[in-house]
Write a sequence for this structure.
């Protein structure tokens, strides 16, 4: 058994037993938040990291799913129906989102996703008769799968963890699959991919759908976690936050977005306990990370370790590879 | 009938403000290839600075507006020189830095000017109404339209008739070739960024008697500027003008007729343009 597998096993063991050694429900809830944001960040990373398509509108898809479920529940649908309905609506919404945004790549994609995201925010904020505007929509209860109530922190955490692990496995398979490789191909060499006979647009479109689905799942967990959804969850700041999770951890890596999600959720909770100015801190970290560590914490650390090891062996370290380049 | 006229005047007024905001945005985009996500913040800062100078320092309204424009232009120049320049050639990183700055500015404004909206009095000379064909038009709105028209003509003269304008156009058309023929493109970046920022700040102040200044006006205005540029095409003065008027009209008529779906109405022409002509109405290349 390799070191790698032991590390993964230990990591899962730690996560699975976390409620019992942490004890305090406040920290268990923070862990649930980290995991649900990690799912969201993994979804955004599919596009930003592997597809080279940076979206500033993904909070819109996250919110679309949460709103769809909340409104369906409000109209008397059962939990299962609401969840499935919300995911179907999110996929349909993502298809439209992708159809518009994929008219462009690079900076154009950033711009269109931002505009579409703001439209979704505007709908949530202004379409009072459906979304209840700024007051948001409440959800009466959390679901009880197989008769296990999720009202307490621990069962909710375990459910989130299961969904998270399933997502992680799905993303890991996706990344290693031929399709994942072709997506990375469209990021690095779109023209050559086209010349090789790949349908670049369609590959990106499917990647968008997968990314939207993961964002939708995270949105549902967010809805049930808070038992409430408001336009606050769809703002540009929310899209920027999740993008920062991806970039700070390391776009295009499996572990990066998870580390980034942990970092940001912890900082947000710690920071809000001591200072009021979370958005300022967020903006400052954004600027600092982009300027000082553009390839993110995980690749940055890996690179530094590798360089240190090579220095010990006496060979020359290989050149740093910046990640934040336009495809 | 008069409702339609009022709506039309309001549309053109908002169109004028949007033109001042988005023409700089569009030029920066055309030249530097980045959507400057601080542009909404610059508009908001212009409003706050101007309002402070006007209300608390007791300056004349127009002096306050000009001072705000200069301050914001200087602020824009600082952002360009000290942050964006460090990331030259990496457009995505530049966009993300502008996003980070906009978050910081929004939060700082909340600290300094609190969450309450600040209403700015209309300059006393223009508080009345102009009666044209028996319909009363608020004078100040007409003044804004006139100012926007004058600035549009001045910008056109600058871009079309001066050496600097020719250099900017060359930079927009082909940045690398402009460099090859000896144009100092990075100096142009700073000039255009200052100009765009100053116009946005000025628009923020002269718009304040109508819109008031409030936290969140930055993220209200930024998407409008984005839509204008997507509609009109990047780096084109005419595109910004037409786009602003269209967006101004859609916003006002949309608010009046479908108040709940105003954002959606705004977004429809953008969808059509993206589908049929991704480079925008007057743009030369797709974003």
């Amino acid at each position: 058994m390799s070191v790698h597998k032991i590390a993964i096993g230990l990591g899962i063991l730690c996560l699975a037993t976390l409620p019992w050694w942490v004890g305090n429900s406040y920290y268990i809830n923070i862990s649930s938040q980290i995991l649900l944001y990690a799912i969201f960040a993994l979804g955004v990373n599919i596009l930003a990291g592997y597809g080279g398509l940076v979206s500033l509108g993904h909070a819109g898809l996250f919110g679309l799913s949460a709103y769809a479920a909340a409104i369906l529940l409000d109209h008397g649908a059962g939990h299962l129906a609401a969840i499935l309905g919300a995911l179907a609506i999110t996929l349909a919404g993502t298809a439209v989102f992708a159809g518009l945004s994929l008219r462009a790549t690079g900076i154009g994609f950033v711009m269109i996703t931002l505009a579409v995201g703001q439209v979704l925010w505007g709908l949530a904020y202004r379409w009072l008769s459906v979304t209840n505007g700024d007051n948001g929509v409440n959800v009466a209860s959390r679901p009880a799968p197989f008769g296990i109530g999720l009202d307490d922190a621990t069962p909710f955490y375990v459910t989130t963890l299961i969904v998270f692990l399933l997502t992680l496995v799905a993303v890991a398979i996706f990344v290693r699959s031929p399709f994942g490789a072709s997506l990375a191909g469209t990021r690095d060499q779109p023209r050559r991919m086209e010349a090789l006979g790949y349908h670049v647009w369609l590959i990106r479109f499917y990647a968008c759908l997968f990314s939207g689905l993961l964002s939708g799942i995270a949105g549902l967990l967010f809805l049930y976690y808070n038992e409430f959804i408001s336009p606050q969850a769809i703002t540009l700041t929310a899209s920027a936050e999740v993008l920062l999770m991806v970039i700070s951890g390391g776009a295009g890596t499996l572990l990066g977005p998870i580390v980034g999600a942990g970092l940001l959720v912890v900082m947000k909770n710690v920071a809000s306990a001591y200072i009021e100015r979370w958005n300022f801190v967020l903006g400052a970290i954004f600027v600092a990370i982009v300027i000082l560590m553009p390839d993110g914490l995980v690749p940055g650390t890996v690179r530094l370790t590798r360089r240190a090891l090579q220095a010990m062996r006496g060979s020359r370290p290989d050149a740093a590879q910046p990640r934040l380049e336009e495809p | 009938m008069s409702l339609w006229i009022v709506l039309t005047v309001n549309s053109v007024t908002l169109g004028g403000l949007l033109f001042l905001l988005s023409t700089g945005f569009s030029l920066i985009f055309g030249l530097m290839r980045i959507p400057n996500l601080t542009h909404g913040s610059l508009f908001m800062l212009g409003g706050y600075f101007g309002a402070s100078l006007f209300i608390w320092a007791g300056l004349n309204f127009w002096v306050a507006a000009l001072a705000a424009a200069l301050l914001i232009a200087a602020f824009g120049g600082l952002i360009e020189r000290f942050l964006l320049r460090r990331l030259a050639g990496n457009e995505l990183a530049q966009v993300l830095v502008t996003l980070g700055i906009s978050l910081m500015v929004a939060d700082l404004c909340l600290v300094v000017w609190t969450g309450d909206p600040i209403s700015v009095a209309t300059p006393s000379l223009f508080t009345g109404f102009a009666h044209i064909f028996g319909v009363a038009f608020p004078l100040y709105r007409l003044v804004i339209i006139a100012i926007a028209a004058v600035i549009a003509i001045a910008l056109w003269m600058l871009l079309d008739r001066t050496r600097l304008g020719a250099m900017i156009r060359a930079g927009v058309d082909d940045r690398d070739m402009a460099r090859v023929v000896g144009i100092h493109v990075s100096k142009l970046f700073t000039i255009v960024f200052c100009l765009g920022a100053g116009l946005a700040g000025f628009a923020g102040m002269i718009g304040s008697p109508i819109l008031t200044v409030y936290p969140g006006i930055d993220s209200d205005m930024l998407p409008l500027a984005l839509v204008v540029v997507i509609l009109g095409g990047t780096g084109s003065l005419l595109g910004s003008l037409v786009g602003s008027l269209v967006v101004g009209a859609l916003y006002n008529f949309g608010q009046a007729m479908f108040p709940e779906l105003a954002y959606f109405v705004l977004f429809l022409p953008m969808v059509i343009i993206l589908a049929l002509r991704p480079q925008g109405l007057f743009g030369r290349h797709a974003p």
Remarks:
- DSSP finds 14 helices and two strands in chain A.
